[in-house]
């Protein structure tokens, strides 16, 4: 067995094969020419861990059981689906990781690591893949970090022709939407269902009780305020759902009516302003679930959640703000006044114009936004002065993120 009290010299143990080890992974873990980004220069067995060192002095401690579980050979990973076939529960070798005889030997060079297990199974690992996945190190994200809007912010605009073309227009648009929560697509065709075609080029449309694709225009007997000509206060869509839609696409086909300007604001940024200016109000909205409900002749959909939802690190993860479909405020009497005060304080922050984007959508223009972060609204319009017709749909955030990762390969 290769072991000892000092790192082995990988230069003396080069394998003749210099190709990238197939780790059943589509994400890049080598440079385009196949050379390792950071060569592996040392390996040392310490008990039940293999300690690896790379040329930039990075060190990774890999438990042997982790290495066995991540073998990517065709016996352990399906060669087509890349899904794990190895079942650690059924491996008799697993019990031997508590002793010193689970690993029969190992060798390495600057581009790969080879392990021979006590049962004769051989595992090979690419040095670049191991470098990316050192225990305790977060795998670098390919996704942009959501960035709060600053004063003067305006969404990135990408031409429809660039989005559907061969260049980087699509990745720029998706990146901007994930980063800012708001992006525009300009100069598209004024054709029915174009919003569906754009959406389906990324992933399946998310259906709700309004269907997979919906028309935003004034109609008789509406079951939603969007289908009227009245002004719409800033809001998020469908907070009455346990899982509200993530990404909303609104494609303008006609907009000749007077009024109807669209407005948007960053709910995450507004929540942080509230936390700074009125921490008590922030805590009330983050810690107090309330009821949201939509009802019509065929549906009655409700959920109980807070206005501001926080992640494990206390950062805003979701905003549920829609004054039309707040249900009965069911709280103890001694908490009601404090909730109303907090709600009004947040609403006043949301209405501030310094981080608010207002625009008039033109025919062939599409706006996309993160419905669980960015609030949207519109001014009232006069349907007697012209037609106003938008088509909309929703996408899951998982599909948008997946699309960008695939584009970046």
From TrEMBL:
Instruction: Write down the required cofactor(s).
Output: Fe(2+)
**Name of the protein in its database record:** Gamma-butyrobetaine hydroxylase
Q: Which InterPro entries match?
A: AlphaKG_dependent_hydroxylases (IPR050411), GBBH-like_N (IPR010376), GBBH-like_N_sf (IPR038492), TauD-like_sf (IPR042098), TauD/TfdA-like (IPR003819)
Q: Which domain of life is it from?
A: Bacteria
Q: TauD/TfdA-like domain location, by residue? A: 168-394
Task: Report the source organism.
Answer: Salinicola rhizosphaerae
Q: Which CDD domains match?
A: CAS_like
Gamma-butyrobetaine hydroxylase-like N-terminal domain: which residues? 47-131
The record's listing under Gene3D superfamilies reads:
3.30.2020.30, Clavaminate synthase-like
Q: Which UniProt keywords apply?
A: Dioxygenase, Iron, Metal-binding, Oxidoreductase
| Stated family | Belongs to the gamma-BBH/TMLD family.
The UniProt record lists the keyword Oxidoreductase? yes
Q: Does the keyword Metal-binding apply?
A: yes
